[in-house]
Amino acid sequence: MTVCPVCGAAATRPLFSAPSPDDAAGARYGLERCAGCGLVRLDPFPSAAQLASLYFLDYYGRPPGAPDDSALSRWNGWFLDRRCRRVERRARRGRLLDVGCGSGEFLLAMQRRGWDVTGVEPAAEARAALPAALRERVHATIDAVPPDAYDAVTLWHVLEHLTAPRETLAGLRPLVARDGLLLVAVPNFASWESRLGRDRWFHLDLPRHVMQFEPATVARLLGEAGFRVRAVNHFSWIYNAFGAFQTLLNLVIPERNFLYNSWKRRLDYRARLSPARYRLCRALSLSATPPTLVVALALSGVSGLFGRAGTMEIEATPA
User: CB of 235 within 8 A of CB of 244?
Assistant: First the structure.
């Protein structure tokens, strides 16, 4: 990539490199900071084919209605309800567009709450797994979305995955109602959690996260796309507390995201690691969890007060 996708500057400063948490081969990916606007981005960008290969069906979440009576399923239901409530506190009930809707569980939950829902999901595999009630409502691209005035447009941890974020936001601008809401959630590269974890930060997720945003860079990006930032929320307890928790564990456990991958993604590390390494990771995970959880909760609360939590939610309106 030769120029910044936000400001167009070509000059950059290298930062550091980090491996992918999913790459057993240990390939490392570099990050650079734009000299013009400060945006942090992946260098070099993967090709479109490489980017597509980084996503798998389980990455998009379990399809709504899939049989699962585990504690994880109940936790996910609570988390989903909280997400719905956050939108309903900020926008009037009406038409919703969710960009990067994945398995469609958020759309389905909002539909059940009386919203008229539409989604965008570029991954054909994810679209094929959508419940029947959503298949005609989810499109492969923003250009295919029916032109209308949406009361709420959401991008839940999507913007950091996009190689052309300004063009995406500019394409959404005509779809947001004059008094509508754009809600964007992204990791915060300026967070204390990021500084502490560095290449072992949970939310870094290279090379899927091709952009690493900070409050100033995401505000500038939104402004150039025709939006005005109304508020920034640094208290997403679920993302922030778990992100801090897993980041702290990453500092003491050899395998990155060991607990997350074992629990959320049900990754069988016994098939990937030697017996000794698996036992070491498991023992460290079990012994470190209680004190680490306490520290993570405290870190999330205090860092949120200073605007330095691991993630942020930006509310914007048409300028």
Answer: no
Q: What CA–CA distance (Å, rounded) separates 291 from 244?
A: 12
Sign, CA torsion 166/171/177/181: negative
pLDDT in tens, 256-269: 999 888 876 666 77
In angstroms, rounded to a whole number, what is the distance separating the alpha carbons of residues 313 and 183? 7
Strand pairing class (150-156; 95-99): parallel
Residue 49, CA atoms < 13 Å, CB-side half-sphere:
0
pLDDT in tens, 58-93: 554 555 555 555 565 677 788 899 999 999 999 999
Strand 95-99 with 116-120, pairing:
parallel
Tokens of 74: 């109940």
Q: How many CB atoms lie within 10 A of CB 125?
A: 13
Alpha-carbon span 319 to 222, nearest angstrom: 10
Query: Which runs of E-coded beta strand occur in the chain?
Result: 12-19, 28-34, 40-43, 95-99, 116-120, 138-139, 150-156, 176-187, 211-212, 227-233, 311-318
Cα distances (angstroms) measured from residue 201 to each of 21, 103, 243: 10, 25, 8
Q: With the C-alpha atoms ordered 209, 192, 238, 21, is the resulting torsion angle positive or negative?
A: positive
User: Cβ distance 5 to 41 under 8 Å?
Assistant: yes
In angstroms, the CA 86 to CA 236 distance is 10
CA distance 295 to 113: 36
What φ, ψ does residue 148 adopt, rounded to 5°?
A: -160, 175
Give the integer Cα–Cα distance in Å for 300 and 234: 9
Q: Which helix (H) or strand (E) holds 112?
A: helix 105-112
What are the start-end ranges of the E strands in 188-274? 211-212, 227-233
Greatest alpha-carbon pair distance for the chain in Å reads 59
